[in-house]
């Protein structure tokens, strides 16, 4: 009997490049993604927005953004925002993935790998992420990547004209 195996699409974590601008703009100009991100993310998302982001990400001495490449093209991002002052050993993480690649396990695997890389090259001991109450798939991504939910901040965010609870997840350096 022949065994059939379903293979996840392969991904690569890398730095952002200028040639990623069209793919970045196309993927991130998606209301479903914007609905689960901070309002600082422009919507609609244009090639000018993508170009500014790529220039910023590529211009950092220490990369804080990982481009997720799938099938040879930019398809998502995992970013880290280091804390300051008394929170200097913590960093916030955020991420998104082109909708075409949702529900394939890519993001949880990529997040686990990016977190390991970030821990290896920094003195950070704690990563954290916040997720809107309406974004159960993102909560699952974090859990599959080893993050633990440590609390719920009630009515902590205001998005799309309503207050939402914010779920707080963390991952400690192994």
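Q: What amino acid sequence fits the structure above?
A:
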């Amino acid at each position: 009997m022949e065994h059939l195996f379903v293979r996840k699409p392969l991904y690569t974590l890398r730095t952002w490049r200028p040639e990623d601008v069209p793919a970045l703009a196309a993927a991130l100009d998606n209301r479903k993604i914007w609905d689960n991100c901070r309002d600082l993310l422009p919507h609609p998302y244009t090639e000018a927005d993508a170009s500014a982001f790529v220039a910023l990400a590529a211009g950092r001495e220490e990369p804080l953004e990982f481009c997720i490449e799938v099938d040879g093209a930019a398809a998502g991002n995992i970013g880290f925002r280091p804390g300051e002052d008394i929170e200097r050993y913590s960093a916030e993480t955020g991420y998104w993935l082109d909708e075409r690649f949702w529900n394939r396990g890519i993001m949880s695997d990529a997040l686990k790998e990016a977190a390991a890389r970030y821990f290896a090259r920094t003195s950070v001991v704690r990563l954290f992420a916040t997720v809107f109450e309406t974004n159960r798939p993102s909560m699952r991504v974090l859990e599959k990547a080893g993050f633990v939910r440590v609390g719920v901040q009630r009515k902590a965010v205001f998005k799309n004209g309503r207050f939402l609870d914010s779920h707080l997840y963390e991952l400690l350096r192994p």
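Q: And what stands out in the fold?
A: Residues 11-128 form a domain with the Aminopeptidase fold (CATH 3.40.630.30).
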